[in-house]
Amino acid sequence: MTPPVSATARAKANDADPAVAGLERPTPAGVNAPGFGSDFIADALRALDIPYIALTPGASYRGLHDSIVNYLGNTKPQMLLCLHEEAAVAIAQGYAKVTGKAMVTAVHSNVGLMHATMAMFNAWCDRMPVIVLGATGPVDAAKRRPWIDWIHTARDQGALVREYTKWDDQPSSPAAAREALLRGTWIANTAPRGPVYINFDAELQEMKVSEPLPPLDVARYMPQVTTSAPAELIRQAADMLKGAKQVLLLAGRASRSIDAWQSRVALAEALNARVVTDLKIGASFPTDHPLYSGSPRAITPDSVEGLKNVDIVLSLDWVDLAGALRAFGPSPSVKVIQISLDHRIHNGWSMDYQGLPPVDLLLSADPDLVVPELVKAIGQSAKPHAVPSPRATTNKEPSGFTNEHIARALRKALGERPVTYTHLPLSWDDSWLAFRHPLDYIGSDGGGGVGGGPGISVGAALALKGLGRLPVAICGDGDFLMGVTALWTAVHYKIPLLFVLANNRSFYNDELHQERMARARNRPIENKWIGQRMADPEVDLAAMGRAQGAAGFGPVTKAGDLPTVLEKAIAAVDAGGVAVIDVRVEPGYTAAMTAAMTRGGG
Ligand SMILES: Cc1ncc(C[n+]2csc(CCOP(=O)(O)OP(=O)(O)O)c2C)c(N)n1
Ligand SMILES: [Mg+2]
Predict the structure, then answer these.
(1) Would the pTM count as exceeding 0.90?
(2) Which end of the chain is more exposed for a tag (fewer CB within 10 A), N or C?
(3) For atom 20 of ligand 1, which residue has the closest CA?
């Protein structure tokens, strides 16, 4: 049972990773009863059982900062110092991608929040729960210090992020602050999940409070929200699927549960469905399964055997169902079943809800809960649908030095070892690495915000500690450079992690856009690199890793050198460190990637 929110809750054991928990131990503050507004906020955080708070400090929450260090003893939550607010929120996003649960972050007044916004938008589009704490004020103008307290006080600070958070609040008393934390945690962790923002007045944190708050049973404020589907709708969906000639299963957003994964496989097998997954989100189906057809690039009317015969599209919370249907170009007789809760989170500001798809049967439910029911209802398929031939993959050695060489070298170096890919670059082809477990790949940034890769990877690697998996982040140089200071947090808190950098010395994705412009306007294509290439000087990415205490390797300029360097870097990570390999791949994308970009994307 969850203990009441009170000073006694402070005696609870810390679930943080033991190596992390041993770090940054404060001098004990002795007998220490709660006496300030922020002590009550800290008590509530403790009772919510959240192990870490990733933060970049600021005076607006110096009260809460003191309470976490000197009142809670920097335990549960334990501080993870971040060098940029965007990294703090990205770390929480990565943590949620692995655990499914919200971690806490704290950012300073309006300015820290401004830095955090990009990562909050990524978490929002990724439907990942994150609790962002902020601060302002003193709201009472009479209490403000000259200048600094004035520029760092904003009316309705939550307005900065309201359009891409599920909820925000600015409580005015310790009791209201506690309630806001309970409500925010519940909302963030309830599907469809997402970030919340709670803003604490500096004065509220620093005020003396003599009366204790009455104890509270946290569990009673986290009621389970039913997200399964009614039996009648499951029966209807099962009947439609049983009568289908060929089902196209779009395996979209899903939890990291292995049981849910196995049910998805059972459903596909019962129907002999063709299955498509999406690198924008975490692995949702074994990509070496004979029923697997590929990534969304595979969804064209004639690219994959069997798709022409599709008469039912079953979407398990696919990120862009309307877009997939458009690319696939099905006949008007194709029926669409959508299982998703996502419509419950859509608002009028961000268009991340995508196009409006035609839907013949909607199950407003969590696909992970519906799929096992569908498997039961379908049983062994009434119709023996054709088994497709496995999709063609090539063993041909690629030419030049490309991302595909990185994939090959990793496959060879890691063999059957459990690996979690915590990030893949935009130009990645999903045939290069096989995913066989929901934790093999956790998806991308969500909001297309470049710079999220390093922070997300650090948060994921933290959550993966002790699971026997090697976290590997493959980042573009642009992504790495925008988020590079997240590495310091990983090194400092002893979070092992391997970065392999697909360094083409360019924001290359945008070179392709300039090429497209030049072609359309009949202008010189050879100028596409201007304003895109990071050359003269080339950035020494390994040195940027070393500067923060990571082991830096490279630059690796020949594919033949990769295996030896990888071996050394993996050894450094196995010894508990962070390793960075600067791989100087050639600028350029595969033909498939370029074709997909011409159809959209980027
Ligand atoms: C915050 C942000 N700024 C700019 C962009 C536009 N953009 C999309 S991809 C890209 C290039 C990323 O460079 P890199 O990570 O090196 O990958 P590459 O395209 O070179 O493979 C840019 C700048 C973006 N999506 N997000
Ligand atoms: Mg690049």
Answers:
(1) yes
(2) N
(3) 508
